[in-house]
Amino acid sequence: MSPYFLIMICLTRKTDTDPGREALTLTLPWEKRIRSRLRVQLDNGQEAGLFLPRGTVLRGGDLLVDDSAASVVRILAADEEVSRVSCLNGLQLARACYHLGNRHVALQIDRQWVQYLHDHVLDEMVRGLGLTVIRALAPFEPEYGAYASGGHGHHHA
Description:
By secondary structure, this protein is of the alpha+beta class. The protein has 2 domains: 9-77, Urease metallochaperone UreE, N-terminal domain (HSP40/DNAj peptide-binding domain, Sandwich); 79-139, UreE, C-terminal domain (Alpha-Beta Plaits, 2-Layer Sandwich), CATH 3.30.70.790. The protein is built from 3 helices and 11 strands.
């Protein structure tokens, strides 16, 4: 066997089982946490492959295992450039969510703020609604959506 032959971890499923030991970690941005097939580099530099069921969405804290469950990897949500809209007026915040959602923007919604991946055009639209937008580096964990388990639920003309 060649000394250059490396065994890549093949992560095939999520698990809820605590590994009982410290898991390896994999830090990914949102756009990569929605992919089911992906070659990645773990945070320790080791190569791995994601071979997950189609439609799998990875969240910060999820645990992945290989077929034998010998390798356990904890997913970490990477800090990303986001736009955060904070507001104590629930109606104003709901209006911002409506207009952003109408543009199919992935949103992370909390009681007093909403955030989305930074986009200067969207920022201007939200400012036009009378809200303040700040840019930040933060993990992005958007809502699953009403059709998360069944795929995209309507057709575009």
